[in-house]
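Internal ticket #5521
Category: modeling
Description: The requester needs a full-assembly model to guide mutagenesis choices. All entity lines are attached below as received. Residue total reported by intake: 252.
Assigned to: D.W.
Attached entities:
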Amino acid sequence: MATDKRPLSPHLQVYRPQLTSVLSILHRATGVALSIGTLLIVYWLIAMAAGPEAYKHAQSVFGSMLGQLFMFLWTWALFYHLCNGIRHLFWDAGYGFDMEMVYKSGKTVVTASVVLTFLIWIIVAP
Amino acid sequence: MSLRTPLGRVRGLGSAKEGVSHWWVQRVTAVALVPLVLWFTVSMLSIVRADYDSAVHWVGQPFNTVLLVALLVGAFYHALLGLQVVIEDYVHAEGTKVMALLIMKFIMVLLGASAILAVLRIAFGG
């Protein structure tokens, strides 16, 4: 069966992105990113289990420029997936489906994820 | 043409067989992860800059050990279910799909087990 010859839907080259579709694919993208990002937590915990030296090394890795950048993006991905996940749970329960509400909750999720990310980093900053 | 009766077709073989439990467990883990992730991020505010001894002490508190293990089980299970859907959506060749699913699931189980073992080692001072 030559199923790979079939056209894609939505046709991505001519598909105009909307807030709804962008937030939808972002939920999936942040989910995949967070799955890979679990490596950070696994590394942190294993380093702690291995002893003070390994833990100190892990802290210097997380404290580096690149480490901090990753952690910042990781924080945003986590909060976006968390907030939009709650939005999805409301949909699963049958609430918030009319277009006005969908856009409103979408904008709320984006704002909340950005605000929470900066809030966390302002508190954590030395 | 199928000679099966409509009842025979739906009984245990319809769309409500395995998909529903996958869908449901994804939501159950999502609901569990909302408070767990919030607890974890708030805890991390003080732990990220703490020294080795305080970090170990924090993980070793019974309340924290239990919630950490719950967070890890929930997060890795949720990630496994999510990545499964992503692979099923984008990998269409049957052999490649099965291989990708197996490898992904093995990796997620190993990562989750490693993280949980690390938590227990820290908690029990192994």
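Resolution: model delivered.
Comment from assignee: Chain A touches chain B through 31 residues (CB under 8 Å).
Ticket closed.
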